[in-house]
Amino acid sequence: MINAILEWLHIIAVLIWIGGMFYTLFILKPTLSILEDKKAKFMEKIMDKFFPFVWVSIILLFITGGVKAKYFIHYPLFNLKLFIYFIMIIVFSYIYFGLYKKLKTTENKAIYF
After folding, report:
1. What pLDDT score was predicted for residue 31?
2. Count of CB atoms within 10 A of residue 57's CB?
3. Which residues span the membrane (predicted)?
4. Which among 2, 29, 57, 76 has most CB atoms closer than 10 A?
5. Do residues 99 and 79 make contact, with C-beta atoms less than 8 angstroms apart?
6. Does pTM top 0.85 for this prediction?
7. Mean pLDDT of the chain
């Protein structure tokens, strides 16, 4: 029962994180051209709502993946999953601590995602 709950939480966290990134990159960002001068403010408001979910997903993935790692550590795909997790954290860190923080502190909002 506990393994099923951990697996469910793990999958939900992945869906939130990757699904949100997919939606933002391939659906939301291309359609922002219709907003013209308000696109940076709009993107800032969306990221204000989305990033807390990403932080929770990162923590959940770390915990659930860590608990379940003892069962899968010898599988070849485990290392691939771990590599992808760290690459995604690096990309998210660049977006959050770089682009997003710059967007929030810039007066003219000329930086777009």
Report:
1. 87
2. 23
3. 6-28, 49-67, 82-100
4. 57
5. no
6. no
7. 87
